[in-house]
């Protein structure tokens, strides 16, 4: 019997959507194809308002991709086909409105729930050919798990429900207890049809084991980095934004005021008059709250907001900067959070300064075990010491770092599906 698998993937985050969430499923698909497996992907159509749409689809003889268009025609016609890559430092009225809805209704206010019947319909269509060894859906959003659960009521295929983030137990969106309770009960019902669950960390694994029957297997398959991306970087490509003669600190991602907050770093720069020695660069399109917290530093050039850049350029930015800024909440509900970004930071061969996160948290432990930076716990003197000489805090464990790659994790999924 052949050990090659016929794999069905259902996900929202997939090319051309360029966001860190896309790369988990994308890199798995890439390495499954390299290993000779057959892959079918069902994903939602991407719209310009969601973000940058500039990642190319993989082309391979063993890959079929189906995009499901789910927004009503009168809405989709009004949506720009190209994304708006302008940097947002202050929430727009539209964002505030949707944030308010999410604050009340949680995941039930997610527009992607409209895709559920269309995803189910597509699953039924391609099931005519059959022959899938297993199906994997990647949360978020919840629509992909819901659609697969509905479809599996009349099918008997092994389903791995993957979690990049938590659903009802997610630490970032604030919502009422009643909303959390309803989300929890909905999630428990949806997962009844799952054969196994995977998630990114031990902390999130514990959350999921409390959510579902303990007899349902929950495995940790971490996020990681794709070594091909870093090996193929054009390292001679100059990063124009970085300033010679200064300590260039780079943050690439999104800002969540009060949860992923760079203010402790700003305070040290101002208190010790480091504005002529340090520049903190922010790359990304969602920088809400930066203008108010860094007003003085923006004026004197110690903080600069550059907006969106394409992925290859950003990877060069990470590698050529002097320090990378990692932000995460220090609240207990963030203890098991391991974003995809931290693995790219670790792979970049650049020291990391971590703010917010506390020792014992999985992201903090990962930085310490890999020897790639300082977990400051927002300690003023530690931050100051780090800024004076980041290299003193950088002693990379290359053997461990090399294990944090997407190929290994893609193989973990295959092994889990075969067990």
From TrEMBL:
The keyword Hydrolase does not apply. Keywords: Glycosyltransferase, Transferase. InterPro entries: Glyco_trans_4-like_N. It is an enzyme of class 2 (transferase). SUPFAM superfamilies: UDP-Glycosyltransferase/glycogen phosphorylase (SSF53756). Residues 111-228 form the Glycosyltransferase subfamily 4-like N-terminal domain. This is Glycosyltransferase. The lineage of its organism: Bacteria, Pseudomonadati, Pseudomonadota, Gammaproteobacteria, Alteromonadales. One of its GO terms (molecular function) is glycosyltransferase activity. Its EC number is 2.4.-.-.
